[in-house]
Each structure stands twice: as C-alpha cells, then as structure tokens.
Amino acid sequence: MENPTKNYSWAKPFPEIQKACTLFNRTELLQIARYVYIPLTGYLQQGPQCGLVALAILMGSANKETVDRIFQWAKKMEFSAYGEMFSAIWMAKLAEKFMPDARVEVHSGELDCDKIKEFLFSEKEILKILKSSVPIKAVQRRFKFVLDKDGNKVKVPRQQIIVTFDNLVLPQFVYVYRLRYEVDTWYSPVTQCYNCLNFGHTASQCKSKKRCKTCSKILNDEGLCTDCEIFCVHCKDNSHISTSKKCPKYNNQVKIKQAMANLNVSFKEAEKIVDNPSYASIVSKNKFTPLSSKTDFPELPPNYRNQSNPPNSKTTFVAHPHSSKSIPSSSVYENYKKRKVSDRSPSFEPVSREFDWSYTGAPWIESHQMNTKNTFEGLKDKIIEDLTCQINNSIRAR
C-alpha cells in the first residue's frame, strides 16, 4: 500500500502538516501496519499539540481516497494549520467513523529490534530538531539489553534521552516538532564492581581478587566459597549482602551522584559535601554566612547616609532587568533603557520622586557617578554647568 505521507503535494497549504508527516516517516516510536498504528506510552497525549502527528498517522494508515475524504471533512470543520482542534484520541474515533472496516489500536508495546533501527533518529538529528529555552550542548541516547526471539542479548534504545544543557538551571520542557516533553534531572547510576564489590569501577577494570557477593570473603583458586554467611564488606553488617541497595554506603553513593548533578561539582567535592555538612557552607561561597547569627552592629557615620532622602519622603522603584538593584521609576528611566548596555552605570542610588524629572537634559549616568556629592547637589551642579555652556555657546555664535 502506498503511503500518502511520502507525497507532500496535498499538504502544501499546511506547512505544519508537512512537519508532522516528516516526523511520521522518520520516527523511532511508531510501527505502522495496515489500518493499525501502535504508539508507545507518552508519545500521543490527549492534547492539541498531538493533533498534527495524529493526523499524519491516520493518513498513513488509509488509502488516498479515504485520506481525501477526511482531509476535506477536517477543512469544513475549520481545521487550521496548527491543528488546535485535534487530539490523538479524537483522531482515533474519526478513523473508526470513516473506516468502519479498519482496526485502529492505540496501546503501548515493544517494537521489533530490526524495526526500531529503521526509524531511529541519530544523535546529531535529535540535536538539530530539539528546541529549548536553554542552549543545548549535547544529546546522548540511552540503551538497554533485551533478549530477542532466539534468546540472544540485543542492544535496543530506551525511551529516555540524556540532554546536556549549557546552564545550571534546567528548562521545564523541550520541544520536538511541536511536541512537548518534560525535562527531569538525570543522575548517573552508582557504579559497583561485582569482582571486588567496591564502588567506582566495573569488573572489567578491576585488578583485585574476586570476593563472594554473600559473605564478602575472597574466593579460593577454584572460585568457590567454603563458609558462606551474609556479611556486608562496606558497613560490616550481617543483615544484607554487599550488593544490596539497602546498604548505607550504597545510599551514600546515591547522594554523592545527586550532589554532583545538582551542584555541578566533581566527585571529590560532592563526597566532601555529603560526608561533611560544614563543608557545604564553604562551597556555597557566601561570605556573609559568619554574620548570619550577629545582630549587634556599629552605627554608620552620619555623612555616609543620603541626606537628600528624608525618612518621610516616598521613593518609587522599578526592578532593573539585568540587576538585582532598583532604580527610580521616571521618564529618565525610559531614556536610560534606550542607551547601550556598555554605557550603563553598574550601580544606582535611590532618588526621591519629588524631584522634577521632566528636564530631559539631566545626565542620568553621570549624576550617579558623583560619589563625593549627594544626588540633588550633583544634579544641580550639572544642570548649572550645562546651562552655562549653552549660554556661552550662544554668545560665541553671535
């Protein structure tokens, strides 16, 4: 049966449908049979963002005449290029209406290993089509081993993909062809050697003697354990074996992995943070932490304070978009925003709103660089200086 999604001529008025058809032809999550589409869990959701993909799947599982009928019917229902009125469940019902002899199934399932390879996106392709509010550095696909029909281990991809972002703050969602996927923090799994039972490496890299998983004793030359009683080599406890996830040492390794991901630190630093809580305060690099418990501070000198702002005067502030400090809300601030970023002063002082800011010649940046004078005196001197220059220039022009 010819797949109508391979010919995009019918979808030219709707460019977003063409994207959905491209996704349909190349996706690793779908296996198409006659009148049957089988998406994996989480791919088709009951929401408008899945309408175009559902439409492409439906058109791929029907002949050309049926596709034309459905497409014309959708246009009469004021179908738009973005598919706001469609959802995956609704499209399944639509297929049953127009194809009564068809068998449309929506369920979860594992795909055949050979079929998966035909629909795989490469990591470079995923990196190209993946959209996010945070810059993406790398994409890595995860794999797992499963048994095929003959009982052999086969490496197949997982549904999760590891994305490395160029930021400490992760985005909430990423987007692939108008499909939204939630982002979760990925913690690297704990690595344990099944040869010496220690953490941090695997058996293929181990040069130590092999130990028994149950009693933790070194095996003899024949690889057998003579006296086998439950004993953990890590916590010296006889209630669990050395490879048990109930072991406190194993849980400590899990916390280290989480600290590495959350704080973006090395294994050694994460280990110090987990084992020594006081070290965590040092790593935070907060120089004011030692002062957090103090309440008695000396009075500042009188000339340090801004005398132009009496206690009863009101000041209106607007948050700076690039700084944690605040600046006055006024017409001068509107002119300030139009300046280049390189021309902006890095610090500002609060100014009373009782001052007349309608004077457009008041230099905002220069006035706040006068640390030796208060705000009003600095502005006053600057205004007088500007007016004097204008008068002198007019006299010279005559």
From TrEMBL:
One of its GO terms (biological process) is proteolysis. PROSITE patterns: ZF_CCHC. Residues 304-316 have a biased composition (Polar residues). It catalyses: N-terminal N(alpha)-acetyl-L-cysteinyl-L-aspartyl-[protein] + H2O = N-terminal L-aspartyl-[protein] + N-acetyl-L-cysteine. Residues 296-331 are annotated as: Disordered. Transmembrane segments: none annotated. Keywords: Aminopeptidase, Hydrolase, Metal-binding, Protease, Zinc, Zinc-finger. It holds the Pfam family ACTMAP-like_C. One of its GO terms (molecular function) is nucleic acid binding. Belongs to the ACTMAP family. This is Actin maturation protease. It comes from Ceutorhynchus assimilis. The lineage of its organism: Eukaryota, Metazoa, Ecdysozoa, Arthropoda, Hexapoda.
